[in-house]
Design a protein that fits this description.
With about 325 residues, the chain is α/β, with parallel strands linked by helices. It contains 9 helices and 16 strands.
Length: about 325
C-alpha cells in the first residue's frame, strides 16, 4: 500500500490523501518510487475542481514527478535509475505523481540530469521546463542577447520566475510584469532589470499597434495581456505563448503580424516529443542557476497540498512549490 492524493467526483467532488494498492495503478512498462512532485497551475485547477482538467475519474493528481525506477520492462530503463516526468496526460487521463508509487510509460520518461537532485528537478517542474521550451523557441527564431528588452509576463509565477532567471543568466535584458509590487526585489534577485505593473498590459480595447518596446516576450497569461504584449513588440520581434492564467481568448487584430512582422509562437509542454524534452532538460542542466532556483523554491508536505493548491489558484503563491512525496 502507498499514499496518493486522489480526486473523486461521485455525489460530490473530493480531494484527499488515500491509501492505494499497486493493483489500482494503470498498466505501464516502468514502475517507480516518487520522491518529489510539484504544484503547477494546472494541478491547482484540478485539485480545487475549478476547471475541467480531469478527464477520467477517480484520478491521482500531479502532472510532474522525480524519483527512482523500482522495476522496468523497458530496455531503456533499469532499477535504480533516476527519472523526471512532465505532462503526458498525467493527472488528467492517467494517474499522476502526487503519489508514492506510479506505473508509467517509458516514452514519457527523461533521465534526470546528474547536476540535479530530484528536489531541484521538481523545483523546475513543468513550469520551468515550459519556460525553457519558450526560451529555446525565441532562440530558434533568432533572438539574441543585446537585441533589446525581453518581457516576461506573470513573472512571479512558476513559468515566469524560471523564465526571468534563465533569460537573465543567458545575458538578456529582462523586464518582469507582475501584479505584486511587493515582489519587485524578488524578481530583481532572479535577474530582472526592471519590473512593471501588470495593469499596464491588461488594458482592454487598447490600440492594436502601440509604441514598440519588446524584442521578445515570454507570456504565460494570455488574453488582453498577450494582446498588449503583441501590440508593443518591435518590428520582427517574437512572442512565445505558453499559458492562459488571465484567459484563453485573444481579442486582437492581425496588425502586429502583417504591419510589424511579429511572430507568435505557441509552446506545448504536455505532449512535446521526447527528443525536445531531452534537449530542454540538457539546456536546463547547463543554463539554470541553482542559486536562483533555490530563491524561488518552497518545499511542502503531502498534507499541505490541498491548502496550497487553493492559494496558488488565487494567485497567492510566488515561484515554485515542491511536494515531498516519499
Amino acid at each position: 500500500m502507498f499514499k496518493a492524493l486522489v480526486l473523486r467526483k461521485e455525489d460530490a467532488f473530493t480531494a484527499q490523501i488515500e491509501s492505494l494498492s499497486e493493483d489500482a495503478l494503470p498498466q505501464g512498462d516502468v514502475f517507480v518510487q516518487v520522491h518529489y512532485s510539484t504544484l503547477n497551475y494546472k494541478d491547482a485547477l484540478a485539485i480545487t475542481n475549478t476547471a475541467p482538467v480531469v478527464r477520467q475519474w477517480p484520478m491521482v493528481a500531479g502532472i510532474d514527478g522525480a524519483g527512482v525506477v523500482l522495476r522496468s520492462d523497458s530496455a531503456q530503463w533499469h532499477e535504480g535509475q533516476a527519472f523526471v516526468h512532465n505532462g503526458w496526460g498525467l493527472g488528467e487521463t492517467r494517474f499522476g505523481l502526487l503519489s508514492e508509487r506510479a506505473s508509467l510509460e517509458s516514452k514519457g520518461l527523461v533521465h534526470l540530469p546528474s547536476v540535479f537532485t530530484p528536489l531541484q528537478a521538481m523545483a523546475i517542474g513543468t513550469a520551468g521546463y515550459t519556460a525553457m521550451l519558450s526560451v529555446m523557441a525565441l532562440e530558434r527564431h533568432g533572438l539574441k542577447p543585446g537585441d533589446g528588452e525581453v518581457l516576461v509576463t506573470g513573472a512571479t509565477g512558476g513559468v515566469g520566475s524560471v523564465a526571468v532567471a534563465l533569460l537573465s543568466s543567458l545575458g538578456y535584458t529582462v523586464v518582469a510584469s507582475t501584479g505584486k509590487a511587493s515582489e519587485a526585489n524578488y524578481l530583481k534577485s532572479l535577474g530582472a532589470s526592471d519590473v512593471i505593473d501588470r495593469a499596464e498590459l491588461s488594458v482592454q480595447n487598447s490600440r492594436p499597434l502601440q509604441k514598440e518596446r519588446w524584442a521578445g516576450v515570454v507570456d504565460s497569461v494570455g488574453s488582453h495581456t498577450l494582446v498588449n504584449a503583441l501590440a508593443q513588440t518591435r518590428y520582427s520581434g517574437v512572442v512565445s505563448a505558453c499559458g492562459l492564467a488571465q484567459g484563453f481568448d485573444l481579442p486582437s487584430t492581425v496588425m502586429p503580424f502583417i504591419l510589424r512582422g511579429v511572430s507568435l509562437l505557441g509552446i506545448d509542454s504536455v505532449m512535446a516529443p521526447l527528443p525536445l524534452r531531452i534537449e530542454a532538460w540538457e539546456r536546463l542542466a547547463k543554463d539554470m542557476d541553482p542559486i536562483k532556483l533555490g530563491l524561488m523554491t518552497r518545499v511542502i508536505a503531502m498534507q499541505e497540498v490541498i491548502e496550497v493548491a487553493h492559494a496558488l489558484r488565487q494567485g497567492q503563491i510566488k515561484g515554485r512549490v515542491v511536494v515531498k512525496v516519499s
